[in-house]
Write a structure and sequence with these properties.
Blueprint lengths: L3 H4 L2 H21 L8 H4 L1 E10 L8 H17 L6 E5 L3 E7 L4 H7 L5 E11 L42 E5 L30 E2 L16 H9 L17 E5 L4 E11 L3 E7 L7 E7 L1 H14 L8 E6 L2 E4 L11 E8 L1 H15 L2 E11 L1 H30 L3 H25 L6 H30 L4 H33 L4 H31 L2 H4 L9 H4 L29
Parallel strand pairs: 5-13, 7-12
Antiparallel strand pairs: 1-3, 1-14, 2-3, 4-8, 4-11, 6-7, 7-8, 9-10, 10-13, 11-12
Subunit structure: Forms a complex with SecF. Part of the essential Sec protein translocation apparatus which comprises SecA, SecYEG and auxiliary proteins SecDF. Other proteins may also be involved.
Keywords: Cell membrane, Membrane, Protein transport, Translocation, Transmembrane, Transmembrane helix, Transport
Function: Part of the Sec protein translocase complex. Interacts with the SecYEG preprotein conducting channel. SecDF uses the proton motive force (PMF) to complete protein translocation after the ATP-dependent function of SecA.
Length: about 600
């Protein structure tokens, strides 16, 4: 039964060649030729955390888990660890991968529950030292700002009652420090030095004892003020524990501003809810806050005290893990246990601040499920062992193919080579674009895939040989055998793919790497069988070596268990040569 593939198998081969050229061309453009290795192959520490709600009630929501992942990522990066990876896994797991071993302190840090604190701002200055401006320099900052190192930044907005305020709340106006219009910071004509790459700021606690009395009554002394003057927002500084009963030197998220903060006057647990919304008859986004009963009383007391302070002490700092997220201004007491943070918010900025407030107020508790530490030497040994195992498996498959299928083993070798090239390019590019890291379990998935790919060849070759035994010609058997074998191949690969998907969804940790590579190579196997293996067999069937059943082709009559190939004549059926009868001497009688 003739098909388009039979008449023009070269089309599929051309498509495959174009895909390979494109994949390796992208690798060349990206200058990435090697896969990204997991920590078990290059050494490092992997921590799997299981999240649960602090108050019980089952697993956290997807939003809570995502916000917790962002908080942990800030913690890890704030500790100065490069190339760290934080990812969610399943419904309640977070996996943290950190290069290098002996990360015990970091393991303890990332598992701590994140709580939000509210503090009074006693001073704020530029986060980095400002170079002296030339005599003729013209300030490049906003007209309201004076470019002097000692200048105090002016608040971006003030708090005043909302025109739509209800008895339950008042307006609380502010701007998100890292997303909305930031608090103006003095800028000279010469740009100040900034970190070359964004990173989580590193706050520093102020030396001193804990504040045991009313935190609203605390005032910075001369020593604290002098220490703050020399403090700079430097990402390389170690990040100490943010203690709520102690004052704090903190930085904004972009390192542009440093803050002298008092002890915590409100905790995140005093906040019961936070959400971003557009008010009725309004056009700008705002963040709505709702405090608990006790929290509302604390908030009223705090805003009453803060509103009486001179700038910048009338700023209310929202601090998460020691990082100042926002600094709204308080101009009057806010009763009722509800407030609105308003300002020049975009939807994304308002939702980001709402999430920080909401999930700081409802923290996620973590239990350390597993900690795996692999040295660089052990990682290298495991990589070598994995490669060796893969080569041994590949060699056994190739040996079996040539011993059993003889010449058809060439098809197996070429198909495995094409599948290997596609898999390698896919793993490299996925590592570059999506951060996929090849782990030891992933290598195991690749080794298993060799057998899955070989199984597809066995199904097709055996179906082809059956068709020949049934009396069809080789060319016809290639097509009819493929028509029947491809359904079996699709079914078998679909089961493998389904198993990989289920395993990936339900698994935790490194097992996901096995499931991912197994699923990836199964898809590549289907692609290679349809686009390369079948067209190659079609082309080989047209050659004399395979078409006429050479003894080494794997399609010879003896190897197939038949007397002859269809279309070939039996040796005994050939016409016998006519024998001449010698005439008797003397002529006929």
């Amino acid at each position: 039964m003739a098909t388009t593939t039979t008449s023009r198998p070269g089309r599929n081969l051309i498509v495959l060649a174009v895909i390979l050229v494109l994949l390796f061309g992208i690798m060349a453009i990206a200058k990435t030729w090697g896969p990204k290795l997991g920590l078990d192959l290059r050494g490092g520490t992997t921590v799997t955390l299981t999240a649960s709600n602090v108050g019980g009630g089952g697993d956290p929501t997807a939003e809570q888990l995502s916000e917790a992942k962002n908080i942990i990522s800030q913690r890890v990066n704030g500790a100065g660890v490069g190339e760290a990876e934080v990812a969610t896994s399943g419904k309640n797991h977070i996996t943290v991968s950190v290069p290098g071993a002996n990360q015990d302190a970091l393991v303890k840090q990332i598992g701590q529950t994140a709580l939000l604190n509210f503090r009074i701002v006693y001073d704020q200055q530029a986060g980095q030292p400002l170079p002296p401006a030339p005599p003729s320099a013209t300030p490049t900052g906003k007209p309201s700002a004076t470019p002097k190192p000692s200048a105090t930044p002016k608040p971006a907005s003030t708090i005043k009652p909302s025109s739509t305020a209800t008895p339950n709340g008042r307006a609380w106006s502010s701007v998100l420090g890292h997303a909305a219009t930031p608090t103006p910071t003095p800028k000279p004509s010469t740009p100040s030095a900034k970190p070359s790459t964004p990173a989580t700021p590193t706050p520093s606690t102020i030396p001193g004892a804990e504040v045991t009395g009313d935190p609203l009554a605390w005032k910075p002394d001369a020593a604290t003020t002098a220490a703050f003057a020399t403090f700079t927002c430097d990402k390389d500084k170690p990040k100490p524990k943010d203690e709520e009963k102690k004052p704090l030197f903190s930085c904004s998220q972009d390192f542009s501003t440093k803050y002298l903060l008092g002890p915590a006057i409100l905790k995140g647990t005093d906040l019961s809810d936070a959400s971003a919304a557009i008010p009725q008859n309004g056009v700008n986004w705002q963040v709505n806050l709702k405090f608990t009963g006790e929290g509302g009383d604390k908030f009223l007391k705090a805003t009453t005290a803060i509103s009486k302070l001179p700038p910048p002490s009338n700023l209310f700092a929202i601090v998460l893990d020691g990082v100042t997220i926002s600094t709204p201004t308080v101009s009057q007491p806010i009763p009722g246990g509800q407030a609105q943070i308003t300002g020049s918010f975009t939807e994304t900025e308002a939702r980001d601040l709402g999430n920080v407030l909401k999930y700081g107020a409802l923290p996620v508790q973590f239990d350390t499920s597993s900690v795996e530490t692999i040295s660089a030497q052990l990682g290298g040994d495991q990589l070598s062992a994995g490669i060796t195992a893969g080569l041994i498996g590949l060699a056994l498959v190739v040996l079996f193919s040539f011993l059993y299928y003889r010449g058809l083993g060439i098809v197996v070798v070429m198909s495995l080579t094409v599948a290997a090239a596609l898999t390698y390019a896919a793993v490299v590019l996925l590592g570059k674009s999506m951060g996929f890291a090849l782990t030891l379990s992933g290598i195991a998935g690749l080794i298993v895939a060799i057998g899955i790919t070989a199984d597809s060849f066995v199904i097709y070759f055996e179906r082809l040989r059956d068709e020949v035994r049934e009396g069809r010609s080789l060319r016809s058997s290639v097509e009819t055998g493929w028509a029947r074998a491809k359904h079996t191949i699709i079914a078998a690969d679909s089961i493998s793919l389904l198993a990989a998907v289920v395993l990936y969804v339900l698994a935790v940790g490194s097992v996901k790497g096995f499931a991912f590579t197994l699923g990836l190579t199964t898809l590549i196997d289907l692609f290679v069988v349809f686009v390369f293996t079948k067209p190659i067999v079609t082309l080989l069937a047209r050659t004399d070596f395979f078409g006429h059943g050479h003894k080494l082709s794997g399609l010879d009559p003896e190897h197939l268990g038949v007397e002859r190939l269809p279309g070939q004549m039996k040796p005994s059926a050939r016409p016998a040569a006519k024998k001449s009868t010698p005439k008797p001497v003397g002529g006929e009688v």
